[in-house]
Amino acid sequence: MPSRHEAEARGTVTRHTWKHDDGYNSLSELLRLYTERTDSKLESLQASLSEIIGQNAEIKKTICFITEKYDEILLKMETLEAERKEDRIYINQLEDRVENLERMANHSKIEIRNIPKAPGETKEDLCKIVTETAAVLEIPLQKPDIKDAFRVNKKEGISTIVVDFANTRTKDDVVKRIRQFNKKNKENKLNTAHIKMSGPAKPIYIVESLTLRAQRLFYLARNFAKDNAYKFCWTSYGRVFLKKGEGDKQILIKDEADINNLRK
């Protein structure tokens, strides 16, 4: 028979063993629960991560698509810009051709401005005004020298007489003589009294007939000359010229860019 101490010792050992097993089981249960929860969270996190990866793949695919389309649009824009430049060059060439044709058509034409229109005025009356004006300028003009004469409305209430001479030489002579006449008679420049028109004397202006493009260019050139102390601004054969002063080189103004370059 075991002694009491042996029995107690054995009982103590038994109680100690029970307590150790109970704690071990509780710890195992906690570890199991922790593991299950962790596994659940990991599974949820992995599912979310997989979803994010899938979304990123879709985003990447979309970005690639947008980039591809952007490159296509950029290429189309570059192509359109190149075509636009080519079209602009072609249009400019056509405009230059039309301008040259119109300038050639105006080579023998002048415009007489500020002469009042008489009631019932006829082409014969216009031709008479032209010959009388030429006589004041000491040009022996005959009817055959006048190819055509007609009025055009330049401004409201004011019409201009356009004269087309039979040749360019006559036109040049008239333009030259009017400049000489006005320079010589600064206090009594050409006016309606010189051609014996009734009423108060009105100044008569005689200029080359210009194309619409040349008219605008001449207007801009005159304003530039006024603002920048250029002494001379004139037209010759439908072209516009500027000159700073006596002895300076004349400048051909072909377009507005030429005027802008002079401002620099």
Automatic annotation (TrEMBL):
**Entry keywords, A to Z:** Coiled coil
Return the InterPro entries for the record.
FP_C
Highest taxon of the lineage: Eukaryota
Ranges of residues in domain FP protein C-terminal: 214-262
Residues in coiled coil: 77-111
Q: What is this protein called?
A: FP protein C-terminal domain-containing protein
Organism of this sequence: Helicoverpa armigera (Cotton bollworm)
